[in-house]
């Protein structure tokens, strides 16, 4: 009797690219680029490109390590079952090695080509997401996304420090804005995919504390976002373009949060307010940071004081 072995087909480059979570990475790259463009001072275009590239590679490496660690969980959730590892298109060890290579390479390149402070913050962001959030927080506490939200808040700070070489109030505020934005953004998603998390035992807020508590906390964090979003203008770090945009956009964020907070389970169209808030929250961050850059350009050109 001849023994047969089943060989996994060779992974396509698109499978490796999928490991980096490109849709999530687009927001990471954009906020990192905005932090770089909004920072005072100037940076050589090549150095700026390398800095943004390193942010992208570091984010991709962290996302890859996240999928390597959570492959078994991903296989049990409808939303993630078609990812390369649970779908059987990629070996876990290959994903792990790819993630480590991206992570280490991005930090070294950032340090050698840009500056070592931005490289250190990039390294911290990778460890925060891949280890603190993925390994420690996510499977243990419903506050996982609250504390773990810091992982996605680093890119604008890294971009800013790539130009200035120092951490000041403005990059800290940009970090804080994304940190506070993350819970209502992610919990809106968690409300309409909570069955997936429940099935694999991930203690997301709607699963552990229930929908009512989650909805109230979405509104609470949305309200806390208001002063943080306005803070760069209030301290004089930006002009009226950013200030006006932040006021209007964040007021809309609160308005989109209200029907989510006030809605009873099973009332009206299934999860329509939640999906609307989730969609708007992504647009919110893109437009808010675009306004930050527009404000800097306008100041540099002397169009506003």
Task: Name some characteristics of this structure.
0% strand; 2 domains; flat; 305 residues; Tetracycline Repressor, domain 2; mainly alpha; disordered N terminus
Topology:
Layout: H1 13-19, H2 22-38, H3 45-69, H4 71-75, H5 92-113, H6 116-137, H7 144-148, H8 155-164, H9 169-192, H10 194-200, H11 205-208, H12 211-234, H13 240-262, H14 272-300
Mean pLDDT across all residues, rounded?
91
Low-confidence segments, given as residue ranges, are: 1-6
Mind describing the biggest β-sheet? none
Number of helical elements = 14
Topology, number of strands: 0
Can you identify the CATH superfamily of the largest domain? UbiA prenyltransferase
Order of helices and strands: HHHHHHHHHHHHHH
- C-alpha geometry: flat
Level-2 CATH architecture of the largest domain: Orthogonal Bundle
CATH C-level name of the largest domain: Mainly Alpha
Strand content: under 5%
Protein name: Protoheme IX farnesyltransferase
InterPro entries: Protohaem_IX_farnesylTrfase, UbiA_prenyltransferase, UbiA_prenylTrfase_CS, UbiA_sf
Transmembrane segments: 24-43, 49-69, 98-114, 120-137, 144-163, 169-193, 218-235, 241-262, 277-294
Keywords: Cell membrane, Heme biosynthesis, Membrane, Transferase, Transmembrane, Transmembrane helix
